[in-house]
Amino acid sequence: MEKQPVLEIRQLTKEIGKKTIVEDLSLQVQPGEVFGFLGPNGAGKTTTIRMLVGLMSITRGKVLIQGIDLEEHFEKAIAHVGAIVENPELYPFLTGYQNLLHYWRMSRSIPKDRIDEVVQRVGLEQRIHHKVKTYSLGMRQRLGLAQALLHSPSLLILDEPTNGLDPAGIRDFRNQLRTWAREENLSVLVSSHLLSEVELMCDRVAVIQQGKLIDVKQVRELVDDTDEEQTFLLDVHPSLQALTQLQKRFPHREVEIIDNRIQLPLQRSEVPELSAWMVQQEIQIYTIQPVTRTLEDRFLQLTGGSQLG
Amino acid sequence: MVNMVRLMQNEHLKTYRRPGTWVMIGILLLVSIAFGFLYQMEHEGAAGDWRAGLEKQNRQDEKTLQNENLNQMTRANVEERYQINQYRLDHNMPPAAGNLWGMMSETAALMSLVTLFTIIVSATSVAGEFSQGTIKLLLIRPASRAKILLAKYLSSFGLALTLLVLAFTFSFITGLILFGNEGWETPHLYVQGGQVHEQSMLLHVIGLYGLKGVDLLMMTTFAFMISVVFRSSALAIGLALFLMFTGSNVVMMLAALGYDWVKYILFANTDLSPYFSGRPLVEGMTLSFSVTVLAVYFLLFNAISWLVFHKRDVAA
Ligand SMILES: Nc1ncnc2c1ncn2[C@@H]1O[C@H](COP(=O)(O)OP(=O)(O)OP(=O)(O)O)[C@@H](O)[C@H]1O
Ligand SMILES: [Mg+2]
Question: Which residues constitute the signal peptide according to the record (chain A) (predicted)?
Fold first, then answer.
């Protein structure tokens, strides 16, 4: 039997006035999965997330969390969810701890020690008794995560969580998210328009555009999708000699030399053969490297290269 | 399923961690004390012989009452005053002027300040969540919106009660220090059915505060509704105060012009004191009529707040 999805969205639609912002969106998030929710600006990610946490009413469709209908049994369903919607806005005139105490009081049957536990988890012990208005953005993000994890939810919903974090912060966050997902047995739904982000964080990703689901794929599948031709960089010696030989071998391809490296289009499956051949030709190989075909390329391709933020 | 008491604890936490709350409490205490001193200054030297004063007043009133053209309202008021003064002279009961009770009857005006502060706190408690964006994290918890709103509403009155008790206690203590307990035993006198009745002064003063509580309840509920509907505390505070200070005057003007429908306006009913001493605004208005009108407005304001808050898409 298949496991019950933690989150199931069925034909979710949101209309505001005459405008359809989210249309017929269906997807499932499985236990323990980190699920990416990818789309350009204005695609409807935030709107969808607002519906998932009950901040916006649902025009049509259903949201089931752990099999519980969100609209019918809001309090029961939402108890399984921890979330940050856009920026984590907390009470600036309270300390971090008081903020958590406030949310702790709004959760059910969670021991009070759990507050200290999550504070430790997000690494905010030093500053937890300071007022939130003295926090840096990174600290606020951490506190935001602490409040989302506080009631040990089974589904974590994060809307562009790395917004405003510096590269080190983003890397920390990414690593931690994975750890938490494992240790707290969490499923995560994370929205982003930072494609490289999703690529590094998620198991599966849904791509939406103009409120419609375009595709759901395994990240790996999305990245090195089968055996399409892509550009490889070869760091070889002697390079000029290699260039002529390669141009002879692939007369119909564009083989170039840029910055002392050879650039040529190849299929992945051709790489082992090519390297064996070069060894035979007594060309010294330092690296053979694909110019990473990122999710971004795929994404642009899927969304027809539409404007990105 | 989250317990109401905990939600109210949260509101309490937020209210008392705002610096503004303490500024308000400070102002209230200062004003309560200052009020006592002002009252003392006003009544200094005015003590004199109270009997002589009352007798003089009564001689004047007798003359006034002989005037055939006197309008009915004034006649009734003068007659009442005359009756009470006579009762004081007969029973040797000096009026409560320049003593603790006299002062306490006046400090009931502090209730306007309590109302003002309660309006500010209740309007901020909803609109503030929207303007700070904290409403999002507040509503994604296992507590229904109705409960969250109720917790906010009730805690506003919790604060009102605290402010009220503080104002009362502080002016009482100031009064005791300034005037001692002279006249402690003197009862409050009022006329009902042509007879003079006695009432404990403490109860009378509490009653004065209590009657002003109607304004507090209605205007706070109104401000709360505006802040829910428009998510703006400034608008809610401004509108509530404007109506509170102009409402009763406008209503009195309309009543004087003889418009009968004025009795259905909220502000024609917020002051219940005429039903205990004095005449109603419009002939034929009764206490139960006013209470009914108040109840209708009260339910209407709360229903609007609840409906709007319940349905609202939070997209801030
Ligand atoms: N309250 C509203 N009324 C009308 N239109 C709205 C409302 N809220 C959002 N929209 C529109 O819905 C669309 C989707 O907005 P949404 O915020 O969900 O996008 P998003 O995918 O989160 O974008 P971003 O990456 O910029 O955060 C936008 O075109 C926006 O203008
Ligand atoms: Mg968004």
Answer: none
The answer to whether A86 contacts chain B (CB < 8 Å) is: yes
B145-179 helix and B100-107 helix, angle to the nearest 10 degrees: 150
ipTM of the complex: 0.85
* Predicted local confidence at residue A68, as pLDDT: 95
Residue closest via CA to ligand 1's atom 3 equals: A16
Whole-angstrom Cα distance, residue B254 to residue A255? 93
Is there a contact between A105 and B139 if contact means CB atoms under 8 Å apart? no
**SS3 string of B37-79?**
HHHHHHHCCCCCCHHHHHHHHHHHHHHHHHCCCCCHHHHHHHH
CA pair distance A302, A95, nearest whole angstrom: 45
Name which of B14, B138, B140 is nearest A78 (Cβ-Cβ). B140
| Atom nearest to A47 CA in ligand 1 | 18
pLDDT tens profile A141-176: 889 999 999 999 999 999 988 877 778 888 888 888
Does the pLDDT at position A184 exceed 80?
no
Q: What is the pLDDT of residue A307?
A: 45
Element (H, E) at B29: helix B19-43
Chain A residues in contact with B144 by the CB 8 A cut-off are 74-75
For the entire predicted model, the pTM comes to 0.83
B95-131 pLDDT tens trace: 877 788 888 888 888 888 999 999 999 999 999 999 9
In a domain, residue B68? The reply is no
pLDDT band per the 50, 70, 90 thresholds, residue A199: confident
Fold of A230-291: Alpha-Beta Plaits (3.30.70)
Q: Whose CA is nearest to atom 17 of ligand 1?
A: A46
> Which residues constitute the domain of residue B277?
2-47+94-311
Provide the phi-psi class of A166: left if phi over 0, else alpha when psi is between -120 and 50, else beta: beta
Residue with token string 């007659």? B79
Its CATH architecture, for the domain A7-223, is: 3-Layer(aba) Sandwich (3.40)
Q: Average pLDDT for residues B146-168, to the nearest whole number?
A: 93
Residue type at position B80: E
Neighbours of B45 (CB within 10 A): 7
Query: Which atom from ligand 1 is nearest to the alpha carbon of A21?
Result: 12
Nearest to A78 among B133, B141, B314 (CB): B141
pLDDT at A302 over 80: no
Distance (Å, whole) CA B138 – CA A55: 10
In this structure, the strands spanning A187-192 and A155-159 are parallel
**For residue A2, what is the DSSP state?**
P
Strand partners, B116: none
Are residues A55 and B139, on separate chains, in Cβ contact within 8 Å? yes
Check if the beta carbon of residue A268 is closer than 8 Å to that of residue A285. Answer: no
